[in-house]
Amino acid sequence: MGIITDIVDDLTGNIDPRHDAYIASSPYFPCGFLLAYIFIIKILGPKLMQNRQPYNIKNILIGYNLIQILVNAFIVYEGTYVYFSNSNWVCIDTTEKDLLADARKNYYFLKLLDCVETVFFILRKKYQQASFLHIYHHTGIVIAAFMGFRYDFGDTVLIIGGLNSLTHVLMYVYYLLSALDSRWSKYTTIKKGITILQIVQLNVILFSLTTAKLIPGCKSVPPYTLFIWTLQNVFMINLFVRFYIRSYVNNQKSVSKKK
Questions:
Q1: CB 94 within 8 A of CB 82
Q2: Which of 14, 94, 96, 122 gives a 20 to 30 Å CA spacing to 35?
Q3: What is the pLDDT of residue 255?
């Protein structure tokens, strides 16, 4: 009962009043959004595309990727500025509280926008790209971003959004180049590098949050939140590692055998 009481107290006592007026801050919003997202991706979208040819949305993809690069780069800038406004490299306690709140808001809305990418897969009839890893990653990160948006759990959440946005800047630069010239999509080395970067990012986030929690007097996320994020990160690392092995190690072995 003590843990349940602590969770309830944290969820009711740490609501960020700076974001409470937004419709998107209601817990019903992400729940409804994600249910609609999964319904569109798994049922409605494939049904509507069943007797249609894949859409040519090259210009839309170029514009979308460019927006992603700019917004993610802006969040990296916000995160970097906020990070260096604190006096400790590990125990983050920034003086830029309002700017951090603004970065958390931008990050949450950006994670909602990220889900549009899966709709593009359906419109292009590339259903294999809407994999379990892809959908789970998007739904999980929307929930995490919502928690960071609605609740003020301290400044250590900065490391999550900052590293994730930095990874996405590089990822969407590659996507933009691929949309401009399809030859870029054939460079397996770049794809492998992005996957490795995502795995490293998850490990660094896990290490940073755990380290901050272990240091006496260091303010960090509540223990149960750290526990959930730890499980989530370990699971995501496992999915990305398995994807890497399946896509780049096993495939390379198959190609070598054929030769």
A1: yes
A2: 14
A3: 46
